[in-house]
Design a protein that fits this description.
heterodimer, A: about 280 residues, mainly alpha, MetI-like fold, 13 helices, about 75% helix, B: mainly alpha, two-stranded antiparallel sheet, about 0% strand, globular
Chain lengths: ~280, ~300
Amino acid sequence: MNKKLSSSSIIKTIIIILIVIASVGLFAYILISAFKPLKEVMTKAKFFPQEPTFNNFIKLFTSTSSNKNFPRYLANSLLVSLCAALATCTICSLAAYGFSRHNYFGKKALLNSMLFLYVFPTVILLAPLYKMFSSVGLVDNYLSLIITYVGLTTPFCTWILVSFFDRIPKSLEEAAHVDGAGSFTTLTRILIPVATPGLIMVLSYSYITAWGEYMFASILLRSNVNRTITQSLVDFAADQYIDWGSLLAGSVIVLIPVIAMFIPVAKNFIKGFTAGAVKE
Amino acid sequence: MNKRVHYERDLRKYLYILPLMLLLAFIYLYPIIRTVNYSLYKLPFGGAEGTFVGLQNYKDLFDDPIFWRSLKNNVIWAFGNLILQMVFAFIIAAILNTKFRGMSVVRTVVLLPWIIPTAAIACVIRWVLLPNLGIVNEMLVNSHLVSSAVNFLGVDNAMKTLIVLNSWKSIPIGVLLILSALQTIPSDVYESAQMDGANAFQAFFRITYPIISKMLWFTSFLIFVWGFNAFDMIWMITQGGPDIITQTLPVMVYRSAFKTMQLGFSCAIAVVIALILIVIGIAYFSLMAKGNRDE
């Protein structure tokens, strides 16, 4: 009995190790390869660099020209993603509070149709959004991209926050009401602090979505200086002559902030995500 | 007096959802209406006003062999993704649902492929998969699993490679959803089943499946829809090529709007995709509603 148990637990351990390798093996390889000198990148692959170097990163950040300006793209992406995340958070908190604590005409239908929006491919929004933004002169302006990203993330994020707010007992607010707090004060002073895990999830989800988005950025931002980092990576990769060394370094730069941001909030993220799902 | 206060509060509550509603109208409702509208015009991209052509774009579309090929690709792509993702998501979720050391670390690590930007992987994966220099071929050849290097993004393999890559990236979402359902099953149910002499298969079909079946269907639905609509992975790695071997309908929409600049035609494809997915969505929701009634 004991022996059988241990052999099955060995198999389980092996499967878990395989799962972990499958999940992070590729990242590890990209991360390590970014430190390979170009001649190693362009010859038969070995897993570890023979002569590790920072050259790929240095080149990426120092050799800037009018149509390749990586530091600028990094700043663009940070700006767009941060603004999108904060705006998503604000709009979703307000809406989720409304949906959770007030009654509206057709509330249930509204909430459900919000999720149904995700059935549509976002590519169908592309041409009309481009036309709309260009008619008001917002093409090649970060604002158009920020508005689009907020639109993409709010339905899901509102849904998640509603389920968080729903679980906060109403007695907390009633006590505040007795003390004379208005409904907006109740939201900012009582509900938001209690729902912090949900808000962290919303912030990180919208930030990550904006950071990695490519399709809308490729159409809405058209000039060389305004590109996002994701867009510039794809452009590098489409060059006639591909500089794999810079591309590897660029991929690492795109990966690291997302992974670094995600790991500390992973628990909240999982909880927030599954809370919305299990409720159904 | 009292009534007026009540009325004002009634109006004020709409302020909370107003920003969201305006945004959704602006980003979804209006563009969707415009897409339907544009699909009835011959509309060169960026240019002046188009000319109204009625259903001509749809007629052209249905006469276009590229459309039928892309639709076929899209169906293969969506089902390939669905099967691969469901199988692996279920296995991984089942393992993560057991207790072991380092469980919370593994749960976080498993999610990483999903949260990272597609571009960061897509742009360098071609280098990783290169027939002559890539590490994958190096490993395969050295371990004698294949006799000569595989051209992963060539005519024969491109679709399979893309399906595997996209599944790899999307499996975590399936894991999360299925795991959340598995966690609602109390473990003592299995213990008593084991005491009654039930084997693993019986335990699955008698206990696990009935409890998580709804979530499995929901997850399948999501994976199918998201897979059907996926654009980034395909566009960034092959742009639908070689030739149109990996071109799905969303790629065709993008290409015809922004590469060959036929906006009206592109919108007609978009409308067709939307209709397909609306039918699938309605079918799913009515099946679920029927299931709820039967219970």
